[in-house]
Amino acid sequence: MKIHSVSLVSSNPSYKTCPQETKPEVAFIGRSNVGKSSLINALLQRKQLARVSKMPGKTQLIHHFLVNNQVYFVDLPGYGWAQVAHATKLKWEKMLRDYLLHRPNMVTVFLLIDAKIPPQAIDLAYMRWMGEHHIPFSIILTKADKKHKTVAQKHHTALMHSLQQDWATMPPIFMISAHNRLGIEQLLDYIKLITK
Ligand code: GDP
Fold first, then answer.
1. Tens digit of each residue's pLDDT (9 = 90 or more) over 65-120
2. How many domains does the chain have?
3. N or C: which end of the chain has fewer CB within 10 A?
4. Torsions phi, psi of 48, nearest 5?
5. Is residue 1 part of a domain?
6. What is the CATH number of the domain that holds 119?
7. Cβ(110)–Cβ(137) under 8 Å?
8. Is the pTM of this model over 0.85?
9. Which helix (H) or strand (E) covers residue 75, if one does?
10. Has residue 145 been placed in a domain?
């Protein structure tokens, strides 16, 4: 998939005000700091389109990027923030889940997992929840740079084992590095294929 044009169409606090479901979309979710902004910037070949940050801002928004006037890339709020009040976390998670439940044009949700650490319970819980609600998802292992290859491979295997306990068919799994652009072109080709 070649990127010809990208525009940030809107940033919304709720699914209710998001763009109409007239075009196919793919969405990106994951724990805070998983490398979501870096991945979106690498896919869209822009340096600062999605903001790379370590701390949560006061508001969490749902960002719609329209790509090639054809497909939305949706940057959803991160989950699992460590330094955020419980009530705020619940509010953000509700916003995220409400969104995922109300987008009939969603082709797949890419759930990002940090390849440098073992699969976390919250990631597995999100997968289970999406499965229960028939929300299609794929997995992306992030930060799988060449220098972290051995550890990334080990966590990939651990993830496969955990998934095999829950799923009869496995979701697609991609390994990428936003820093080295490893796996980025393959992921773009996959997005092109599924959003045709
Ligand atoms: P977000 O909070 O999920 O949007 O994550 P960010 O994109 O802000 O990245 C969080 C941290 O992970 C930053 O310090 C990034 O530099 C780092 N990071 C992101 N992508 C990669 C990658 O491909 N390789 C490595 N080694 N670090 C990465």
1. 999 999 999 999 999 888 888 898 899 899 999 999 999 999 999 999 999 999 89
2. 1
3. C
4. -130, 30
5. no
6. 3.40.50.300
7. yes
8. yes
9. strand 71-75
10. yes
